[in-house]
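chain below, 271 aa
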Amino acid sequence: MIKNLVIGSEGFIGKPFCSFLEEKGEEVARFDIKRSKREDGRFFKFNFKNFDRVYFLAWDVGGSKYLYDAKLQLSQLKWNLELMTTILGQLEKQKKPFLFVSSQLVEEFDTVYGATKALGEVWTKEIGGVCVRVWNAYGVLEEKNIKSHVISDFTYQALERGKIKMMTNGEEWRQFTHVEDLSRAFYMALNTKKLRRSVYDASSYEWIRIIDIAEIISGLTGAKITIGKVKGHDPSLAVNIGRIPGWLPQVSLQEGIKAMVDEARKKLIND
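prediction:
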C-alpha cells in the first residue's frame, strides 16, 4: 500500500485531499499544527523514510482580505520562510518524491505570499520535486473569519442577511478550481512517470469576474447585491503555464457553488 505524508492535512485543501487519497485505497499520515502544536512544520524534524510520497500543502494563507492586509505581511513572511526552509531543507537531504503546492500569485512579487511561493517553486525545482499552481480554490465551506475566501463569504451573507455586500466593485477577474479537481491534480502530478516540466497549473482555464460569482449566489438564494466602490486586486494578467498531462477540471463552477449553498443551508438550520 502506498504511504503518503500530507503536511498541511487540516487545511482548506488538505482535508479533502486526505480523504481523496484514502478513497484511492492509500494510507495517509496527517501532519498539521491545527492537530497539535507539536506538529509545527517550522521546527519539526521529519523522517520521510517510512513514506512513499510527501505532499507539502502547509502555508500561512487565506482569502484576499488576509493576503493583502498590509499589517500581516511581515508575520506571513516570517512564518512561511521558516516553514519552507525547514521542510524543503529536509526533503533535499532525504530525497523523497514530493509535491509543493504553489499558486498563480507567484507572478505577484509585490506580495509576501507571491514572493514566498515563487521561492518555493525555485527550491522545489532544484531538488527534483513537482509544483502545482492552484488558481483560486473553492468547494469547502469555511468558518467565518479573516482567512475565509470569497465564495464562502458571499454564501453566508446571502443566507444569513439576504444580501451580499461586496468590498469591491467586483470587476476583478479570477479562475476558480474545485477542491475535488485539485485533489486529482495533486495525485496525478506524483503518479505521472514522465512529466515534461516541474511546474504545472490546476485551473478551470476560464476567467470570471467576482461580480459574476455574486450573481450566481444571488440567483440561488434571492439575495440582493450591494456593489462596493473600491477597485479589487486583479491578477488577470497571470498566464497559464500548462496543465498536468491527462488532467482536466470536471466540476463546473455552477455545480460547485450550488453544493456549497446547499451545505450552508443545512449548516445554518442545524446551528
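Residues 67 and 113 are 7 Å apart (CA to CA). The mean pLDDT is 91.
thats it, cya
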